[in-house]
UniProtKB/TrEMBL annotation:
GO terms for molecular function: metal ion binding; metallodipeptidase activity. Mn(2+) 1 binds at residues 158, 193, 471. Residues 243-392 form the Peptidase M20 dimerisation domain. The lineage of its organism: Eukaryota, Fungi, Dikarya, Ascomycota, Pezizomycotina. Substrate binds at residues 221, 254, 356, 369, 443, 471. Gene3D superfamilies: 3.30.70.360, Zn peptidases. Binds 2 manganese ions per subunit. It comes from the Eukaryota. This is Cys-Gly metallodipeptidase dug1.
Length: 503
């Protein structure tokens, strides 16, 4: 494959004419839902309000399930319009919530040339919850672009931007009249932010069917370590998500009448939660750290070379509240040690004001990010035993229950594979630097499943940067990352086509 088409794809700019293209190239899909951007406005469709960031496809909230389905339909329609063969595969009912259908997996094939490599790309079209009242400066489901070309909106970086990046790559090739370098298989799911319910079985079933031609897998669903230098990622932490409920009185109580004379669920819960993790991030569950693989000298030597500073951490935190004094210790805490986070309490009074209520039932939520060699059943046993033992020490007459909501496995692979070499060359082509090789603190539950079920190498190729605030308020994707990231995905596919077949 000559480099010419690659250069052409990798060097166009938004709004710039490229050969054989009658209109300026604009990755228009992402800009549906946004009208005031003058550069993009001429290319917007009149029905813009319906799409992409504008669809609140929140998988964790039952009332948004219809929106998750709408988002699947949007993607399927877009892929079909681009000439892909698309199917929406049902996954059945949601376990534990049988009144809800799981959103479909949108699978697609673009190209079926036996002489080309086949790349399977995975992404997710569901998003985390978001409310303006959480502290967003703009409406979370209206894409808003500021004067620094930062594109704000829930899902912008996690993971609608990267998913649409793959579609933009197809569109760019079609508009430019450039032959597509590989066959592309797409697998886009709608439950990733809720533990990828149902997808493991689907991947295992399709590994030797729909995905059988895949030569390698690429996932664009994580972030650079900083804001300037891209990275390729070869490891993820897992995630075990727990709920602990405490119930007592038959209904909420007046604290003046019952305070001091009844065991209070919220008091018990706060006591139990305080025994999980200390203020320095140390997990207080006996035996848990014994499950963690020891650090080797070889691994220790890797951290120093990574382009990361404490300033990068402070920039993405928006504060100087890091726990550890050095970048090495910070990266290890994020990549290779477990962490325990307390996320919230259902049933507790959280509105402004001073209501003097004693909640009758509260449910605390926490999760543990897991690492090699922690196995989920071992972690669960230690968690359940510890929570029950700490509750027993309170001598409360309330009732406690603790359970696992969902778990996802950690993953660490070898980056010594043509899949990573191709991505590395693409980063150098598009950004002019060699990428850092990183692991990631977040979780993409199906990564290991793809690796094991297909037997193929899996690469994580992120588009967004460390300041994107995924899962937080004011999530954004910089326009530069979106445009250059789209080029990166395209260039990667061209380099994949050039990698020696024997590798
Ligand atoms: C890294 C990826 N973009 C992501 O955000 N994954 C989620 C997946 C999840 C949700 N519950 C458990 N895992 C994450 O890491 O929180
Ligand atoms: Zn994601
Ligand atoms: Zn996410």
């Amino acid at each position: 494959m000559p480099l010419f088409p690659l250069r052409r794809i990798a060097s166009f700019k938004p709004g710039q004419f490229i050969p054989r293209l009658s209109t300026p190239y604009t990755p228009r899909r992402f800009f549906y839902g946004h009208i005031s951007d003058s550069k993009m406005a001429p290319n917007l469709e009149p029905f813009f309000k319906e799409y992409a960031v504008a669809i609140p496809s929140i998988s964790a909230q039952d009332e948004n399930r219809k929106d998750v389905f709408r988002m699947a339909q949007f993607l399927a329609d877009e892929l079909e319009a681009l000439g892909a063969q698309v199917e929406q595969r049902p996954l059945g009912k949601q376990p534990g919530k049988e009144h809800l259908d799981l959103p479909p997996v949108v699978v697609a094939r673009y190209g079926n040339d036996k002489n080309k490599r086949t790349i399977l790309v995975y992404g997710h079209y569901d998003v985390q919850p978001a409310l303006k009242e959480d502290g967003w400066a703009t409406e979370p489901f209206e894409l808003t672009i500021d004067e620094k070309d930062r594109m704000y909106g829930r899902g912008s970086t996690d993971d609608k931007g990267p998913v649409l990046g793959w579609l933009n790559v197809i569109e760019a090739h079609r508009k430019a009249g450039v032959e597509f370098p590989v066959n592309l298989l797409c697998c886009f799911e709608g439950m990733e932010e809720y533990g990828s319910e149902g997808l493991d079985d689907f991947i295992k079933a399709e590994a030797k069917n729909y995905f059988k031609d895949a030569d390698a897998v690429c996932i664009s669903d994580n972030y650079w370590l900083g804001t300037e230098k891209p990275c390729l990622t070869y490891g993820l932490r897992g995630c075990n998500y727990y709920s602990v409920s405490i119930t007592g009185p038959a209904q909420d109580l007046h604290s003046g009448v019952f305070g001091g004379s009844a065991h209070e669920p919220m008091t018990d819960l706060v006591n139990v939660l305080s025994k999980l993790v200390d203020a320095q991030g140390n997990i207080l569950i006996p035996g848990l750290m014994d499950l963690v693989a020891p650090v080797t000298d070889e691994e220790m030597a890797l951290y120093g070379d990574i382009s990361y500073t404490m300033d990068n951490l402070h920039e993405s935190l928006g504060a100087e509240t890091g726990i550890h004094p050095t970048k090495e210790r910070t990266l290890m805490a994020r990549w290779r040690y477990p962490s325990l986070s307390i996320h919230g309490v259902e049933g507790a009074y959280s509105a402004p004001g001073a209501k003097t209520v004693i909640p009758a039932k509260v449910i605390g939520k926490f999760s543990i990010r897991t690492v090699p060699n922690m196995e989920s059943p071992d972690v669960n046993k230690l968690v359940f035993d510890h929570v029950k033992a700490e509750f027993a020490k309170l001598n409360s007459k309330n009732k406690l229950d603790v359970w696992l909501q969902h778990d996802g496995k950690w993953w660490v692979a070898s980056p010594k594979h043509w899949n990573f070499s191709a991505a590395s060359k693409a980063v150098e082509q598009v950004f002019g630097v060699a990428p850092d090789m990183t692991r990631e603190g977040g979780s993409i539950p199906v990564t290991l499943t793809f690796e094991q079920a297909t037997g193929k190498n899996v690469l994580l190729l992120p588009m967004g940067s460390s300041t994107d605030a995924a899962h937080s308020v004011n999530e954004k994707l910089d326009r530069r990352n979106y445009i250059e990231g789209t080029k990166l995905l395209g260039a990667y596919l061209h380099y994949v086509a050039e990698e020696p077949i024997s590798a």
